[in-house]
Amino acid sequence: MKRLLLFAVCTLCIWTTAFAQDAKNKKETVTFFVEEMDCQNCIKKIEKGIAFEKGVTDLRCDLSTRTAKVTYKTDKTDCEKLCSAFKKIGLDVVPLEENSDRPTEKT
């Protein structure tokens, strides 16, 4: 009986730890339209200012579409904080709808 109870407690601890790690490591990707991005210096400015924001794990800029695709950890930051980070470096951004080139509508 003691072994069964010990096994149940150990199993519960392992499951709890595994699910906590999954929630902690959740990532999202958002694409921003950057109107003012028109040269390589703009891309460098974004890479220097945004890539090291808390929670950002990946950053891809595309000059031809004037977009910046940011992947981030959801427990560290969110879309609004990233918009503020762009504003800090002097750029206004608009989040785009997923798989679209249209801005997301604010309700």
Brief synopsis:
The protein has three helices and four strands. By secondary structure, it is of the alpha+beta class. Strand 2 (56-62) and strand 3 (67-73) form a beta hairpin.
What does the model show?
With 107 residues, this protein is α+β, with helices and mostly antiparallel strands. It has three helices and four strands. The protein has helices at residues 2-24, 40-50, 79-88; strands at residues 27-34, 56-62, 67-73, 93-95. It has a four-stranded antiparallel β-sheet, covered by helices on one side. β2 and β3 (67-73) form a beta hairpin. The relative contact order is 0.19.
Topology at a glance:
Layout: H1 2-24, E1 27-34, H2 40-50, E2 56-62, E3 67-73, H3 79-88, E4 93-95
Antiparallel strand pairs: 1-3, 1-4, 2-3
Main attributes of the structure:
single chain; 107 residues; alpha+beta; 4-stranded antiparallel beta sheet; 3 helices; rod-shaped
Characterize the main sheet: 4 strands, antiparallel
- CA gyration radius, whole angstroms: 20 Å
Q: Helical region count?
A: 3
Note poorly predicted spans.
none
Gross geometry? rod-shaped
Order of helices and strands: HEHEEHE
Strand order of the largest sheet: 2-3-1-4
Distance between the termini: 58 Å
Q: What structural category do the secondary elements indicate?
A: alpha+beta
